[in-house]
Design a protein that fits this description.
This protein is α+β, with helices and mostly antiparallel strands. The chain is built from 3 helices and 5 strands. The protein is rod-shaped and about 75 Å long.
Length: 141
């Protein structure tokens, strides 16, 4: 009879996950599945519950980081972040020592600095590497 309860819990958790898709209940659904297998093997309820807990925690600790990375959850690129990896044009020579340099990239002009510290002449093509504050760090393409 506990098999039915584990199955109901599994279905409910999967439905919640399907509606929210936040990777919150899927791990407990995995634990329910393991506990349901234990119930099918006629193991005692306390064993089923321990398997549910251990399986759920293990799924959270081991599989969630991989799933978040693979699905790229929790990190939505902002407008500025979208510039990383894009090619731009130096409109004012970049010299980190004098604190000068402008880059036109994706329709915007950014104060720019050379990522490796080397000067970059006006008219050169550069790739955006990172953003720090309001400065775009680039390297020559």
């Amino acid at each position: 009879m506990t098999t039915v309860y584990w199955l109901i819990a599994l279905v409910v958790l999967l439905l919640i996950e399907a509606v929210t898709f936040g990777l919150t209940t899927i791990w407990f659904a995995f634990g329910c599945f393991l506990a349901m297998l234990c119930a099918l093997l006629k193991l005692q309820f306390w064993v089923q519950f321990v398997v549910f807990l251990v399986g759920s925690v293990a799924a959270i600790l081991l599989m969630r980081p991989l799933a978040v990375k693979w699905l790229k959850l929790g990190k939505e690129r902002t407008n500025a972040d979208r510039l990383i990896g894009e090619i731009g044009l130096v409109t004012q020579a970049i010299d980190n020592l004098t604190g000068t340099g402008l880059v036109h990239i994706e329709g915007q002009t950014w104060t720019a600095r050379s990522d490796d510290g080397e000067p970059i002449e006006e008219g050169a093509q550069v790739m955006a590497v990172r953003i720090s504050g309001v400065k775009l760090f680039v390297h020559r393409v």
